[in-house]
Write a structure and sequence with these properties.
Largest interface: A-B, 60 and 59 residues
CATH superfamily of the largest domain in chain A: EvaA sugar 2,3-dehydratase subunit
Oligomer: homodimer
CATH topology of the largest domain in chain A: Nucleoside Triphosphate Pyrophosphohydrolase
Helix content of chain A: 10-25%
Chain lengths: ~475, ~475
Amino acid sequence: MPSHIPPTRENESMPARLARSAATTRGALLRTEDFGDWLAERGRTHTFRVERIPFAELDGWSFEASTGNLVHRSGRFFTVEGLHVTEEGEPFGDGPPSEWYQPIIRQPEVGVLGILVKEFDGVLHFLMQAKMEPGNPNLLQLSPTVQATRSNYTKAHKGAGVKYIEYFVGPGRGRIVADVLQSEHGSWFYRKSNRNMVVEALGDVPLLDDFCWLTLGQIHELLHRDNVVNMDSRTVLSCLPFQDASNGALLSDTDLLSWITGERTRHSVRAELVPLASIPGWKHGDSAIEHEEGRYFKVVAVSVQAGNREVAGWTQPLFEPVGTGVTAFLTRDFFGVPHVLAHARVEGGFLDTVELGPTVQYTPENYAHLPEKERPLFLDTVLRAGPDRVHYGAVHSEEGGRFLNAESRYLVVEADEAEAPQEPPPGYAWVTPGQLTSLVRHGHYLNVQARTMLACLNTSAVRNR
Amino acid sequence: MPSHIPPTRENESMPARLARSAATTRGALLRTEDFGDWLAERGRTHTFRVERIPFAELDGWSFEASTGNLVHRSGRFFTVEGLHVTEEGEPFGDGPPSEWYQPIIRQPEVGVLGILVKEFDGVLHFLMQAKMEPGNPNLLQLSPTVQATRSNYTKAHKGAGVKYIEYFVGPGRGRIVADVLQSEHGSWFYRKSNRNMVVEALGDVPLLDDFCWLTLGQIHELLHRDNVVNMDSRTVLSCLPFQDASNGALLSDTDLLSWITGERTRHSVRAELVPLASIPGWKHGDSAIEHEEGRYFKVVAVSVQAGNREVAGWTQPLFEPVGTGVTAFLTRDFFGVPHVLAHARVEGGFLDTVELGPTVQYTPENYAHLPEKERPLFLDTVLRAGPDRVHYGAVHSEEGGRFLNAESRYLVVEADEAEAPQEPPPGYAWVTPGQLTSLVRHGHYLNVQARTMLACLNTSAVRNR
């Protein structure tokens, strides 16, 4: 019987169902206190050894003669190339003019990062996977249900290799909760994006080895532990359509969008791929390509050996940052509504010039040589904050398939008017988590670090005081 | 006295004020029946003569020796370069694989297209300008209050040359109604975007020569006339935050965003700038660069002579399409809510692979050589439609500063289930004008042709039957 009432544009019930899951800390299938044992047991089943190797020992990877780019002989996976970034001053942008060269990862293919959700006992649970990635300091972390490239899941064997992929693509997939292309690290990837999906399963779902069902409340507890919830999980979780409890904000949504448009307009940035062999300021050794002053990151190579002989080993390049990052939102209440201070960041690999990042996103070692007044804004405020000002703090690592020991301390730090005024300096704006949640429905607004922070803010991992 | 109630995220009153302006067909300052005389009088004040010239007579423009690119000696304005577009098939995209070369305009600088609004007699009026552009078939059309590049308005004389610019940039500007970076023609421009702004003036505004105040209702009447409201005006008008009257739609907003994400993912497109001299399939004559089969467009040159000796003349290249385009939305009601059939289009110059265009956007001449079943979907349905099925029809031209006689017939055509089924073919989706209005708050969703159509839909230029 056809209905004559039009379907509404918004799924009205999902925000409340997400809130219920976030408030539920006892999972129907795995208790949080048993999670550590479960993960350790998964680790024992899949033992891996990761070793640094010189570039010459890479199998299938080599430096292309004409460009010096690091490429795989199949033409697949990714390449390491050079990037030349110039930012112009007046009259095209308001500068200051700057220019730099760096290695960058180029991987044009879009991947799917997908989390499957399903109700158990009336509460949404999220299907998470214990997954080894060679760059993770502890190898095994909690990943989304699916991490796959299109060529992975569409090739000859039609996705037989990618578990649960049928819930995310094709005619029989589940009900879409979120589905958006989001950028990856703009300082390390050239215009890379992944498809972030959350899908609700409509029927029974078999539980395979290495997978577990957790509520959002459980995941938020795990977000307080160092190096447990991987980057891919965090970015997918950031895309959940939570309700904005307050609906108030210092800037209206129109003024916020206008501010972002203005930031994009005042930065005139050109980023061009160039041969890796040609980039000044970087030296090329047998085991690493590194910056001449030892800053930023190195390009290195590893070999991965599986203890379990059924799984083949492999070798690959990875990017290794030179230190532990500090990634933080400063937070203040205005009119009783919590706000965070967003930074409009230029990163050379962004598709669209500027995305919003956390207030602070730096590796302090890279700035240690500078006099205090030339150091990044707000960095010292974050580094100085006593524990009573820290609403959230945990160490997380970035995508372990491309980055080696890329750890950052993620923090939410309370600030006051003297440290972070209500009228912030150019390039910064006070926004609410509700506004960030509206923006993240669309690509190119929040960088991956801001999305990690939003996942923590929205799952209530951040303690309100 | 500080308020303790947080400002709300949305400006609740603006949609109603826009609706009131759209319902007002009698302007407080210029009657619509007097508009034609006013525009003709403006035309007599500024007489211009535009003549085609061979490339050799261009002043300051030349073909660069190493690339064959058409460039200006100052390095400014824009360049005409070559573009090589490849779309991949399985496993990276679902193809069919294709590849082509074409000339393309490269103009990295972002421009401001801004309309100033102000209440007269309690009704919002829009400040429009009578502006000559050499590519317009009738030269003089109605443009936004401001059309300027950043280097125009920030250079030495601080914007003295750009009238009303102070309402759009700088600390004293008005209240923002809309402000978003939108793409220009993806088939003719390489990743070009302009800042589309609507700003409400907070105080008195002097009325200068060549400018007039019109209500939205008046502008909608003018949108029924051929070649009056220029493209820059139409795209800015499309960004107005109208209310969605119905709030219902066949696809939920989440499913619509997911469909767009899926379209972006299934198209694997690479677009690379190449030297203009190297592109196959195009021949280079003294007065035109044109396609070997006479399709698509030509690159030509014109000289502009002012009748009024106080204004200097100039020469410049223009792109000239080979025929009049047909740009149309098919429309149907579902559940009593009007929908239009959007097409996810790949255009080589888009920043982000795919944007939504009208159902049909073609120059029929380009496809006349093909058998019927290979012709573009829905084109014949539009061409066949009798007048009783045409809810809207007018000829508009594209940006006259870059395109010569680039006219299209814009149409809204009623369809039925046989012509346009509720389950449309891949690459098409039924969406409501309300959904398009939500999308157009953000860049990279609606192409410039879809935005022209949305301006007509939202100002009620389209008759509902």
